[in-house]
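Tutorial, part two.
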Amino acid sequence: MWRWLAYPIGSKGDCPVRILAWVTAWFIMTASVAWGGTIKGTVKFSGGALGQKKLPVTIDQYVCGKEKEAQELILSPERGIRNAVVSLLNPPPSLMREASLSSEIQMDQKQCDFVPRVVVVPVGGTVQFINSDRLLHNVKSVGKENPSFNRAQPHARAIAIVFKKPEILRVDCDLHSWMRGWVVVADHSFYSVTNDRGEFILDGVPSGKYTLQIWQESLGTVTTEVTVGDKGTTPLTVEMGKK
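Running the prediction step on this input gives:
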């Protein structure tokens, strides 16, 4: 793959210059990531014990089952919060680089649940809504910054929706009232969704002081300050509780 460097266009004398320019450009493009730090943290619930809430299923039980566990707040045994969205709040313009997030995300409908429940897509990106269930769903969202949509979705049909402005949108299925998902439209790449232990990672963050924002569908939003070094990992634990 390097062979083209041995055959520069023009005189032989400019070959070292061309190679040096290419290597310099590559070094500049990768330096910010190589020198950036990592924020590695956990979002935990600070409130009291939660009872396990069950939602009755009154339609399409042959696919959906007879009841569903409520998913608006899911905790690990260590009280880590799943599906919280962590991001840098109003990063400086130098960090508003082109989002490295995937520009095409999938949200499936499996056994009458949106999977995954929360997705992050960059501004201008596409969410492909998929229906793996052998029954009719619909995907519906009312946006403030993005156009609203309400589309019937038979089995195995994909629906592609483009989101052009930053916003958090709720997605519902009118046919199955418990179904809920969330699309977070991001205007920069420093976003992460917590895993089933409440953990998140933000990579390649240049050194400096930042405000970190954490959003969760039933707990709202909290912010915290964090200082990132030139390299290495900055550990962080953030607590959220019901207001």
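The radius of gyration is 22 Å. In part three we will examine how such features are distributed along the chain.
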